[in-house]
Amino acid sequence: QVQLEESGGGLVQAGGSLRLSCAATRMIFSFDIMGWYRQAPGKRRELVATFGTSTNYADSVKGRFTISRDNAEKTVYLQMNSLRPEDTAVYYCNLNRRGTEYWGKGTLVTVSS
Q1: Exposed/middle/buried for 110, CB within 10 Å: 0-12, 13-18, 19+?
Q2: CA-CA-CA-CA torsion for 51, 56, 61, 64, nearest 10 degrees?
Q3: pLDDT at position 30
Q4: Does residue 62 contact residue 47 with C-beta atoms inside 8 Å?
């Protein structure tokens, strides 16, 4: 069982930046697919970015967000730049280990206009 804990959320003005972190309680392996998802109020959870053998981004965040991982530190990051009010959501960390998924409890990001 792997537990994930997100941190780094908060309130930021439009155009600002935040860096989210996701710490795993156990080792993460190169074959694990790490990802960030978000859920805005009244909306479905959506993919933001994943990092498996390559990175993948939602069109809405391409060029603004960067996902990275440090397997030795058991941590995944999401650097978010040029934030927009529509980026406001709870951001969740996800680990997909050969089809078994683990989720964090989420961290709230609020972007004011």
Answers
A1: middle
A2: 60
A3: 92
A4: no
Q: How far apart are CA 56 and CA 62, in angstroms?
A: 9
CA dihedral 102, 58, 87, 99 (to 10 degrees): -10
For 20-72, the pLDDT digits (tens) are: 999 999 999 999 999 999 999 999 999 999 999 999 999 999 999 999 999 99
State how far the Cα of 82 lies from the Cα of 37, in Å rounded to an integer. Answer: 18
Whole-angstrom distance, CA of residue 92 vs CA of residue 105: 7
Residue burial 22-47, b: 16+ Cβ < 10 Å; e: rest? bbbeeebeeebbbbbbbeeeeeeeee
Tokens representing 7?
């941190």
